[in-house]
Write a structure and sequence with these properties.
This protein is mostly helical. The protein folds into two domains: about 70 residues; about 120 residues, no CATH class. The protein has nine helices and six strands, in the order αβααββααβααββαα. The strands form two sheets. A three-stranded antiparallel beta sheet has the order 1-3-2. Helix 6 crosses helix 7. It is globular, with a radius of gyration of 19 Å.
Amino acid sequence: MEKQIRELVAKLLAHQHLPRQDKLVRKALTDDAFRQELDTRLHSCGLKFLDNPYSGHVTLVLARDMEQSVLGEQESWLSNTMNLDRSAIALLMVLWSLIILPKRQRQIERKELGEAEDQTELFADEKPLETGRTVSAPISRSALIADFGEKLGKSTKIKMNLGTLARLGFIVQRQEEIYEGPLLDLVLDYHQLAGRVIDGALFDLLGRHLDGVKPSHDSQWDEEDEDV
């Protein structure tokens, strides 16, 4: 166990995120003793293992009691640990809203449909939530610039920030399409943000793009919000 925990932590630190299918990640998600020891080791270093069943990846984040000393040691509270400026964070929130909110609705609908079908089976096994391309649709970069260019800094600024977010693992760019990256649905807390986006300050900006999307209150994952 000692070597496996060291290997898992080292891989997460080196790669920033790992897929849920990774052998050691699966062990952390299914082996209670392994997970308890992992959490203890990480807590001693001010870190936390972050898992979201709606995301296909896991990562490490700051432990809650470390936020003040890490993010608040300067004159102003840091909004993130990745040196993202305000324009990049604004773009990140728009991308999260356009990609993750519709994705979550699809996941919940398919989960509910699967549960209804399972009720007719005598020995139905619990199925993992769908992630990846089957539920996460891409958005058009040109459409993003056309719709939000005036608010997010014109074409050149948006393309520069898209490159930054791609390097950090929030998105994946393939030609003119923008896909969900490993961290987009992981380090941004849906339960903290969904209602604020749909009912709050971003509604006027995103309204027509989120028509019909409602925040889910599924209780499988109700973590406190994490800092990027």
